[in-house]
Amino acid sequence: RGSSSNSRGALVVLEGLDRCGKTTQSSRLVQYLEGLGHSAELWRFPDRTTSVGQMISSYLSNESQLDDHTIHLLFSANRWEKRSLMETKLKGGTTLILDRYSYSGVAFSCAKGLGFEWCKAPEVGLLTPDLVLYLDISPERAAERGGYGCERYEQIEFQNKVAKCYQLLVDSKWQIIDACRPMEDIEKELQEIVLDCVKRCQNGEPLSHLWS
Ligand code: FDM
Q1: What family, per the record (predicted)?
Q2: Hey, which of 59, 88, 145, 189 has its CA 20 to 30 A from 206?
Q3: 76/171 Cα distance (integer angstroms)
Q4: What is the pTM of this model?
Q5: How far is ligand 1, taken at its centre, from the CA of residue 116, in Å?
Q6: What is the pLDDT of residues 93-146, one digit of tens each?
Q7: Cα–ligand 1 centroid distance for 110 (angstroms)
Q8: Ligand 1 pocket, 139 CB below 6 A?
Q9: 96: which strand partners?
Q10: Distance, CA 108 to ligand 1 centroid (Å)?
């Protein structure tokens, strides 16, 4: 469909605190794009289906204990193991909607007290998203949505720290979305922003690498 030989799919990331609505919104975005005839896939990180992903999953459900640095590197490894497929898909014209990415990696580990630059280092060289949609909601409001589950990071105090760390990562690729509004309103806003991004990438916007 593209108008340029460098036409490619867009790399779009949804980020935010637990229960901000990004999982619902990511799958709706994929449906929307597919409905318009675009090739699109929903990916989520951590990808719990790989062997690294299974170690992460057992850590998150408190079935195993790991040093903070170790789990940080596993989350990063989990993105690296998908990197080449990611590039292949994008170059083949498929848009990828990611439910979490490197920004979660840095924000959650940094909130535990690990150094900001140390946290960013293993992400260097991964693909830079064309767009980061941050679904902005306070931890209190998020917790009201049926309450947090029992996974490791689902506590208001910790989520507050995560929100502060996310702020350190904001750059020109970010769009901050007020996630306290009705779901349909958010959905409409995201559709417009993402479609615009998909069109830019069809016109040959080059891929770049973190962090730039
Ligand atoms: N998380 C997620 C991290 O701590 N680092 C990461 O790199 C990623 C991708 O894992 F609490 C945290 C964020 C969240 C938890 O995420 C699991 P999901 O979206 O609830 O599966």
Answers
A1: Belongs to the thymidylate kinase family.
A2: 189
A3: 20
A4: 0.96
A5: 17
A6: 999 999 999 999 999 999 999 999 999 999 999 999 999 999 999 999 998 887
A7: 13
A8: no
A9: 11, 41
A10: 8
Distant-in-sequence, close-in-space partners of 16: CB < 8 Å, separation ≥ 6: 22, 134, 135, 136, 137, 166, 179
Ligand 1 atom with the shortest distance to the CA of 45: 9
Q: What residue's CA is closest to ligand 1, atom 7?
A: 105
Output the pLDDT for position 121. 98
Alpha carbon of 46 to ligand 1 centroid (Å): 6
In what order do the strands lie in the sheet containing 40-44? 40-44, 95-99, 11-16, 131-136, 174-178
Residue with tokens 């996310």: 166
Q: Is the CB of 72 under 6 A from ligand 1?
A: no
Upper half-sphere CA count for residue 68 (Cβ side, 13 Å) = 13
